[in-house]
Amino acid sequence: MKTHIYDFDLAQWQEYLRTKGYPAYRARQIFEWLHRHMVSSPQECHNLPTELRQLLEEEFHWPGGEEIRSLQSSDGTVKFLIAFSQRKVIETVWLPYPNRQSLCVSVQAGCSLNCRFCATGKIPFGGNLTTGEILTQFYLTQRTMQKKVTNVVFMGMGEPFYNYEATIKAAFLMHSTLGQSVGARHITISTAGVLPAVERFYQEKNPFGLALSVHAVFPEKRREIMDIEKKYPLQDLLKVLRQYRDRIRKNRFTFEYIMIRKFNMYREDAQKLAELAREFRAKINLIPLHTRFYGMEPPSEEEQNLFFKWLYEEGVLARNRRSPGKDIEAACGMLAAGKLQTNLLASLIQ
Ligand code: SF4
Question: Measured from the CA of 121, which atom of ligand 1 is nearest?
Fold first, then answer.
């Protein structure tokens, strides 16, 4: 299989061109065409010699062959469905805000973790995305929407730390000043808590924000909704995180917490969550469960407000992320749930 044209970083382009007998400055030219100008064809790279353009065409996979569908929500959120192949179908969500544009990217087609409240884990797993496929989501949506992406969250389909190398490399390429220059503080990688990868992330001193999917603070409850708790218990993860407390406090650190009615919204849950947030100076993102799902119920507005108030009384400020894109099944935990995917898959199979 050919390497995706967006897969290489600058050092890899330098090495590739050296082996092909081209001068080093061509690497920077190619890198800028790809990652600053986001070209999807070698013919657009005007200052490259014809034979080099031909070589790039022959030896690399270029974007452009993907099947794409999109749906726009009444609140402006746009969900893109991108099929890299019949098996590799993913969703990307464009989230417009008054002063910024956020993009929620996927790193896997499906997810092997199967959290109970999440639709993504319920579809057949189609494998890891390459760095180039992750970047394609960025460049394609930015070109389509004709607005600059200012924030990227790796919170779409899949567990980023089960596709660690491709994820981190994609984040660095988005951050590159020769490319789109997204600030490191505006790039957030989420994880359900893959302990060895979290440790690696901090050992490597990555500059990006980390969002930990906590969702329940007591082990028995967390085990009920997240299989990963059996393999990497939250308690063990927190012990490791304590070793990197200074680093964590420097970068952005967030707890994601899905609110499920009569399950994880009691006062003791709020107290324990607040205690952890204070210890790590973590921000808390509260996400209401959107629909009835596998015996779980969404909280009422009053229940959400009460949980928020308890956290506030404990001295921590939580943000209630009120489900952008809910009407098009683009909200957290809903990716892969919808008709868009069914329609696209049907058209691919025809
Ligand atoms: S919540 Fe995240 S980690 Fe859990 S199944 Fe869904 S995509 Fe995977």
Answer: 5
